[in-house]
Amino acid sequence: MERQTPIDIEKGHQALDEWLKGRHRGKAPIKLPDASIADKSVAAPFAQGKNTSDPNASAYDMFHDPKNHPDAVGAILTYCGTKMGYTPASLSQAEAAEKFTDYIEYVTTFPGFFLEHTSDEGFELTEVNVQLIASRLKDAYDGYVSVDVNHLIDSIEGLIQAVMSEKQQSAYKSLFDQSPVANVDGTMHIFINWVVLNMSKTQDGKTTVITQNYKMKFARLICNRTYLVTYAQKLADAIGDGSLDDWINQGTSNQNPAIKSCVNKIQ
Question: Of 76, 80, 150, 256, which sits 20 to 30 A from 248 (CA to CA)?
Answer without folding.
Answer: 150
